[in-house]
Design brief:
The structure holds 2 protein chains of 2 kinds. Chain A is of the alpha+beta class. In chain A, strand 11 and strand 12 form a beta hairpin. Chain A is globular, with a radius of gyration of 24 Å. Chain A starts with a helix and ends with a strand. Chain B is α+β, with helices and mostly antiparallel strands. In chain B, strands 3-2-1-4-5-6 form a 6-stranded antiparallel sheet. A 5-stranded mixed β-barrel of chain B has the order 7-12-13-14-17. A 5-stranded mixed sheet of chain B has the order 10-9-8-11-16, covered by helices on one side. The longest helix of chain B is centred in the N-terminal third of the chain and has 17 residues. The radius of gyration of chain B is 24 Å and the shape is globular. Chain B starts with a helix and ends with a strand. The N terminus of chain B is likely disordered. The chains are: A alpha+beta, B alpha+beta. Strand 2 of chain A pairs parallel with strand 3 of chain B.
Amino acid sequence: MSKPSLELARAALLTPAGLSESDLESVLGQMLGRSIDHADMYFQSSRHESWMLENGIVKEGSHNIEQGVGVRAISGEKTGFAYSDEIQLPALAQAAKTARVIAAGGHEGKLKAWSTRDGQQLYLPDDPLVSLGADAKVALLKAADAEARRIDPRVTQVIATLSGVHEVILVAATDGTLAGDVRPLVRMNVSVIVEQDGRREQGSAGGGGRVDFSYFLDQDRGLGFAREAVRQALVNLDAEDAPAGNMQVVLGPGWPGVLLHEAVGHGLEGDFNRKGSSVFSDRIGQQVASKLCTVVDDGAMVNRRGSLNIDDEGIPSGRNVLIENGILKGYMQDKLNARLMKMPVTGNGRRESYSHLPMPRMTNTYMQPGEHNPAEIIAAVENGLYAVNFGGGQVDITSGKFVFSTSEAYLIEKGKVTRPVKGATLIGNGPEVMQRITMVGNDLSLDAGVGVCGKEGQSVPVGVGQPTLLVDGLTVGGTRS
Amino acid sequence: MAKLMAQNTTARAAYDLDQLKQLVGDILQQAKDLGATSAEAGVNSEAGFSVTVRMGEVETIEYNRDKGLGVTVYFGQRKGSASTTDFRPHAVSETVRAAVDIARYTAEDEYAGLADPALMARDIPDLQLYQPWDITPDAAVEMAKECEAAAFAVDKRLHNSEGAYIATHSGARVYGNSNGFVGGYPSSRHSLGCTMIGRENDEMQRDHWYSLSRNPAGLEAAVSVGQKAAQRTVERLSARKIQTGKLPVIFSAEAARGLLGHFIRAINGSALYRKSSFLLDSLGQAIFPDFIEIQEQPHLLQGLGSSPFDSEGVSTRERRIIEAGVLQGYVLDSYAARHLGMQTTGNAGGVHNLSINHQAADLDALLRQMDKGILVTEVMGQGVNIVTGDYSRGAGGFWVEGGEIQYPIEEFTLAGNLRQMYRGLQAVAGDVDRRGNLLTGSWLIDEMTIAGD
């Protein structure tokens, strides 16, 4: 909770509406008077800009402005919630009145004095949208298009997109929280179609983070996405049918960490565990993965897409060990679930916007590196699959079944990576698959900054990462049985 | 509904069609004043609430009130877009200006522009899409409690719940453009659902059931929704794995909706002009067997996908998309249509109530027709490649033998290619799932690769 961020948030959200901190105190105070355990207000303003290139021209651009305030009142396990897109005292008071209808029992709470602390600054509180002129944004997309077409004449389509968000939030709560954050987020993506002898395949690459647009010019990153998209598409032109059945699978480093997000991440979110609906419920202290696995959720990584100086409840984000040497250590929590489970908050309370309720969510989730060289891991497989790129995944946290779908994969034959195979979905049971991780590489990397996580209709940006891993048995959903 | 409004965050009605039309008019005028050669704008406003109940207690009461406006301006063949949720005059002006600023940097696009004025909806039929629900949050809480209680009463293995919910929303949308078209209409949506968790031998399973309708009278009874959620959960307990192999597959009506959805994505204009579809240049080709008909009916009264005009103001029309298995038309907006040298099909924003004919009476008849194979009731993941038609997804369902369901199965994948799956469609059942825009019963596909143990 750096003071400068709070000052900026006050200036952006409260000052234009003529709202003072005593106004916030009085609204919160009225809510507490109704036997509410906790109440908070979340002010948000965001500006989003995007540009899209297709057929060699930047043909679309859009600009979106959104702002509002969400008011929440909690009584025991009950939550009342209302919001307004007008940041004005009367609308705020009305939303507060609506939210507190939830109160029935609960005990008398007390409004605590504001507590503001100097906090972390994982990213600069600047507006990324103005970091590059419109001409330069257009030029960047055109350069990516030219690069993709230059590399290979089989490229028939290039779609390149550039988007940025400048978001300012302020949280005020009855527990004394008064915190603000200014969150830049940029993203670039290039997807291509290649064509050869009537066969078409696609490839896609991108990245970004809580930085400004110059990130895509540095080290030619934007052009790098174009090259990577073309490379993937060309690999897929040669892909054969994928195998079907249970086999050894080597997962590459970085984005394949979507495995962890699905196989364990969601299942360790506090809400599911409080309700006993997760396959990991009541398993703290137990062995839930092989001893080689240490899994961390870290919202405090510099400039990362999933990072937050403070979460959406004003709690500083941090590094939380979820699984250590295979033993389940803890869950990811928001204030509501931490209180009901009598556990510490972890800075994982996130929400899509002021019009959504916060809940426990991941930030950047990854596995610590092990000791094996990636080449040794591949050499250890007689016949299997080497999967290096994925689309996305999904999990049923109750049964533990999860899937993730490859977009670039190869056969491993006699310890060597041989031919590329078509995209296939991999399916397994989270705790079982984690127990079958028998080799962990020394090449930890995080994804390039492309992840979007959806839960109960709310999307938030996240990061994933892992070193190369060997899973000794996973079901591969190809067509060749 | 009126009662709810009085206690909502602001004391206005959910919408005022004339006010929204006035706003669209203002936006178009401002765009013109800033030099735009043409412009279009859409606004929407919606309000409602939702309640969730879990383990017999209220969990959340959420009041929703959402609105938004979007504008696209054209300077010749260059365009720019902007949107906001803030309807105050200065915010609206800023938004129009933002769109104009963007149009200074976008390139000339020969296909850009408004839809042909001759195609605009001339009269706007009342499709009875606005059927407000006069229910208080307290009454909704009682109904959700009743739903969850009915679920728990079904089986003692149901030890836990993710809760039951009721949601009700209504509002209006207005679209207008500088060719003189302005149209709008109100609509509503109500839903009721329940998710249960069961346990047997250390294994947990969950499943759900829901009802969705424009008209509260069209919602399934709360007790029935709870009981179905419960039955579906209990039926999944003690699921087994299966062997890898090739087998016939029935997609339940819910799962089959996805297959119809992939077909629509593959014949969508944007996928076609980008040459990113496995159904490129397939007009006049047999995509399905000759007994299959697929039609679009945008004007079904109270239909979840009904709309008198599309998101460019183009009048929507009933049509056959598949006739005797053969593709009759694509799904186009005016932009994609110009790219392809065709005319818009009134599908800017998507299709409107798509349905497929059926050959088998119900799911039981389809199970008998299959005799041995698998019934898929749930698919997971994103393994559908529209460029190639390659399909590989996680699934759960039931083992079928002797034309009857034997036991639940899980942790397997289904793989094939959509082109072959559509050609291999053996029959569709009459157990139509009406909870959406794509209306279909269960599908029997001749053969897919199943990967399991």
